[in-house]
Amino acid sequence: MKTVVYCATRNIYQNIVYCVTSLAENGNIDEVVLLIEDDIFPYELPIDYRVINVADQPWFDRTHPNAKKRWTYMTMLKVVMTKLLSDLDRVLILDCDTMVEQDISALWSLDLTGYYYAAVKQPNDGREWAFSHGADYFNCGVLLCNLDALRDGKEDELIKALQTREWDFLEQDAINELCRGRILELPGRYNVSYYTVPDTELYIRHYAAEGGWWEYPEVRRYNVKL
Fold first, then answer.
1. Pairing of the two strands 98-100 and 204-206
2. Which of 24, 17, 1, 4 is nearest to 223 (CA)?
């Protein structure tokens, strides 16, 4: 089963429609899972999907400093996939500012033996300061998760780290630090953004830090009637 996951608070439900429409038209995947704050998603989507209401999620205290960053607590839910999706061994998590432009089904055939995640490197914002030994840093806006591997206790370690320590870029920093050496590098085409390594092809466009991206002409073509 080729499953893609989105995590969204109510204020960005409309963004989900654009993102999922692009995925349905181009991605060649089987199913979408929406982690949202309701039992029912209020808009129609052009693909099979299931909803998990995470409004009362038990893992992350919303009074903790991490939950008061410029992102919502939803970003931290990227590290609880084994808890929420016990029936799957691999999922792709996409941020709600990503548009899928080509077939991404090959990601489910990658050999992830020995890796917890796969992602595209992020060299463009000086994140190297956070890590010793010149370690690579990966952008988690497009994150392929090896759930079988993460069930060895690594997700529990990530959950605890996000509960007990304040992080700048939340789950992205935690994943990079605690999974160092166990993140497979994806080609840049799977996460094309200002932050990531360049590529000559475009499979997933990530509008990270681009305000008003939903008004771009290439996005508006997926702006179905809401």
1. antiparallel
2. 17
The candidate with the shortest Cα–Cα distance to 11, out of 68, 57, 70, 72, is 72
Cα diameter, the chain: 50
HSE toward the beta carbon, residue 106, CA cutoff 13 A: 7
Spatial separation of the C-alpha atoms in residues 3 and 122, rounded to whole Å: 24
**Domain boundaries, given as residue ranges, for the chain:** 3-220
DSSP 134: T
Is CATH 3.40.50.970 what the domain over 3-220 is classified as, yes or no?
A: no
Residue 192 DSSP class: B
Give the CA distances from residue 76 to residues 7, 30, 81, in Å, rounded to whole numbers and listed in that order.
Answer: 9, 25, 10
- Do 5 and 92 touch, CB atoms closer than 8 A? yes
Q: At what angle do helices 170-178 and 154-164 cross, to 10 degrees?
A: 130
- C-alpha span between 199 and 196 (Å, rounded): 9
Over residues 156-197, the pLDDT tens digits come to: 999 999 999 988 888 999 999 999 999 999 999 999 998 998
pTM (predicted TM-score): 0.94
Is residue 84 within 8 Å of residue 35, measured between CB atoms? yes
